[in-house]
Amino acid sequence: MIDTIEKEDPVISEEEAAQYDRQIRLWGLDAQKRLRGSRVLLAGLGGLGAEVAKNLILAGVKKLTLLDHEKVTEDSCRAQFLVPVTAQGQNRAQASLERAQNLNPMVEVQADTDKVEDKPDDFFLQFDAVCLTGCSKDLMVRVDQLCSQHNIKVFCGDIHGYYGYMFSNLGKEYSYVEEKPKVVKAAPDSSDGPEAKKAKVDPNETTMVKKTASFCSLKEALEVDWTSEKTKAGLKKTPLDYFMLHVLLKFRTDKGRDPDPLAFPEDSLVLKQIRDDVLEAKTLSSDLLSDDFISYCFSEMSPVCAVVGGVLGQEVVKALSQRDAPHRNFFFFDGRKGNGVVDYFGPN
Amino acid sequence: MVHLVGSLRKELADSLSTCSVLVVGAGGIGCELLKNLVLTGFKNIEVIDLDTIDVSNLNRQFLFQKKHVGKSKAQVAKESALQFCPSANITAYHDSIMNPDYNVEYFRKFILVMNALDNRAARNHVNRMCLAADIPLIESGTAGYLGQVTVIKKGMTECYECQPKPTQKTFPGCTIRNTPSEPIHCIVWAKYLFNQLFGEEDADQEVSPDTADPELAWNPEDTAARATASEKDGDIKRISTKEWARSTGYDPVKLFNKLFKDDIMYLLTMDKLWKKRKAPTPLDWQHLENSEDSPVSGLKDQQVLGLWGYCQLFQHSVETLRSQIQEKGESAELVWDKDDPPAMDFVTAAANLRMHIFSMNMKSRFDVKSMAGNIIPAIATTNAVIAGLIVLEGLKILSGEIESCRSIFLNKCPNLRKKLLVPCILDPPSANCYVCASKPEVTVKLNVHKTVVLTLQDRILKERFGMVAPDVQIEDGKGTILISSEEGETEANNNKFLSDFGIRNGSRLQVDDFLQDYTLLVNVLHTEELERDVEFEVVGEAPDKAPPPQSKPEEVNSITNGNKDSSQPSTSSKALNVPLAHVCIPTMSRKVISSGVTHEAAAHIYSRGTPLREAQDVDTLLVE
């Protein structure tokens, strides 16, 4: 059920202006208008998905499609706040729909119960941005490739216990604007005060500067070559979370699920083995990634979903509004240390 | 053998279901925090907030919907949280945390207190209560894209008041009254005008030309010119603005001509002021009447009207406020509120008319509201990140790992070390903190012959030193009681001067706030040489002045953590603040300063005086 938004109306309604006031004061009316014309696909309504859904709906996108084929389990109710406790057995996207819609009646929220992998290529083309959570590596690589061909912005993210990451691909030539303080030159009839005779930076006067950035594909980002001496030298500055991500993605591919707290002893052993295999395949020492992470990467931790969901949500907002420098191209969060790092992985 | 319940070790998960935690505030951070706590497995949560829900909250305070506007935030937050976690035990209080019911005993119920506040006074108070109860406190704040979390533990870390925080920016009276040079000066003037005409008249909020301006050196020849200019409609100085306005029946045109013509002409006679400045140009209602105004489209609020448009806005808002005041009766006083349309219209109009007079570009209602209402822009995602971090710090505390707690800063862009989130080691308590040191002491400079007891109580002890209910004894060998927190007991002392009680240079006052379990020794330093408009100075701190114009935005090293800094609405304070400029700081982690300013203030983000030392990046201290 959506309240009427003037179609293609360049003017924001008084109702929207009142509700979005505090964010319009931050990112401006233009950005808000662009958000309001954007359509986003969100796959996966686990802990991270729910956070991203909330953030995008509150921001005021035009339409958000919740895509999830999974059913609500007892755990799902504890993992996210959109699914009612009575919804067990229901489809997760559908169960989340009502509360998601109530977050902001001005956004059109839709539930889709299909599997992401079953969707034909042209399904994705109706969106301005696609956000994938809980997907296998191959699926993400495929969707990323398809979408970036059509200038659709791609975001991926997952949470594993205390750890989380997000990835973005905004295309080879992504342009955006940044607000910079204006340097006011001295002028005899300066119009912001009788005393403005010297050049100064007026914090209230700003100007928009245009910039561009280039992003690589997810495939390229994940297949960085570590064999050369040069890249190995760069290891010291490389967040180890990158390698942990590979381990967890491989676990998901091999087992068809994420590490399960109820199978802790067995899954820990599998994780250790995969860690060894992954690092060996990259010609790196297995010492690089200690055993430490293993007991902290199970399940989705709510506060970690909140942190990564917040960063990811804001990246989507920035990309849709084409305003402010995007994080390029990974964000890794370590909930045990409180570290949040942005780093680029891909061809130079 | 590791035993997990979800992501958590079993021992930790178990402790979550038995412990009690307190969340102070149910707004932007509070809603996100409540959600995280409940989903993480915290079973017993108490949440307190004195506020009700407003439509402008709905872009981020996601536990509230449009149908809840006007209702108690704490109450609705609880109900919404129970929707997705019916087994949680949540108690909601629609109340102020500064209510004496929430005493040290109350705080001791909790294993952890988490602040989700927006004003300094409450933060100071909770800081002291947690010190008194010896309960760990997680403090946090956000503004726009920036945020911070830190942990406060008595004896182990800095308390909230260990580091001096910049106080509200104030402007000298003569700038407001005679020589405004920036839009903010005109806006402050307009808010003062509102109070003088419709609200509580305040001697510190004069709007008429200031003849005691130090820049002026009066010549006798000027006196005649001034005398003529001030003759119109009575002597400017002797009759109160409100009385004069009442005598004209709040006639908008008469008000307009006095404020924007006669008073400006008076200022023009003070020619020393205009030697190096562009002189103001008075307005005349008759000449402006019916001049063309360009048609408007799009959002009304974001338009800048023409001069006649603001004349009309002035007229309409005066007429509306006049009827409001007449409805309320003889000695009615209105309180300025940015969300009250005629009050906001009035300030928009008056400020813009004055800006025009002083050759400044006029501003839209939207922009004026930002400045006048001290609005801090806010979004859901920043609050979501910070609330997540708060819970993670809380879990460390509950696991007995408080040494692994950190201050964490959220930047807008990654720093030079690629960090978007920067954890920093917590600092130890400051040895001479006037709150958490073992025998806190301060020295205050003031004029004992000119400072009254009420000023000591309200401006110094309550406002500046954050006390809620101070009791003051003079250390004069007799234990003379100067101020009693019991209502009415020492009221007779209020308007007496400190010197009347024998207080002089070197006197010492013992100040207690029993609710906060806090004793402060105040040394009095008598002086006859305080700056204009300054009532007192705390020795050891930079003077409370507006800083010089900023030159380098990169030197930002503070973010605002809140806005409401006193129980009074923003108009009664002298200070207004410039909205935040959001810039990327490509530097190492910064020390965050919280400055509380009245009602949703965007505090001034450029630190004054010496920049606070930079927080140390954890990586430089830990072995990787």
TrEMBL record, chain A:
Sorted UniProt keywords: Ligase, Nucleus, Ubl conjugation pathway
Domain of life: Eukaryota
Family per record: Belongs to the ubiquitin-activating E1 family.
Coiled coil: none
Pathway it works in: Protein modification; protein sumoylation
Name the record gives this protein: SUMO-activating enzyme subunit 1
CDD domains in the record: Aos1_SUMO
Record note on quaternary structure: Heterodimer of SAE1 and UBA2/SAE2. The heterodimer corresponds to the two domains that are encoded on a single polypeptide chain in ubiquitin-activating enzyme E1. Interacts with UBE2I.
Residues annotated as domain THIF-type NAD/FAD binding fold: 20-339
Example of a GO biological process term: protein sumoylation
From TrEMBL, chain B:
Gene3D superfamilies: Ubiquitin activating enzymes (Uba3). Chain: B, domain 2 (1.10.10.520), Ubiquitin-activating enzyme E1, inactive adenylation domain, subdomain 1 (3.50.50.80), Ubiquitin-like 2 activating enzyme e1b. Chain: B, domain 3 (3.10.290.20)
Active site (UniProt): C174
Domain THIF-type NAD/FAD binding fold: 9-405
Record-annotated Ubiquitin/SUMO-activating enzyme ubiquitin-like domain positions: 444-531
Recorded metabolic or biological pathway in which this protein acts: Protein modification; protein sumoylation
Enzyme class per UniProt: transferase
SUMO-activating enzyme subunit 2 C-terminal domain location: 541-585
Subunit text: Heterodimer of SAE1 and UBA2/SAE2. The heterodimer corresponds to the two domains that are encoded on a single polypeptide chain in ubiquitin-activating enzyme E1. Interacts with UBE2I.
Name recorded for this polypeptide: SUMO-activating enzyme subunit 2
Species classification: Eukaryota, Metazoa, Chordata, Craniata, Vertebrata
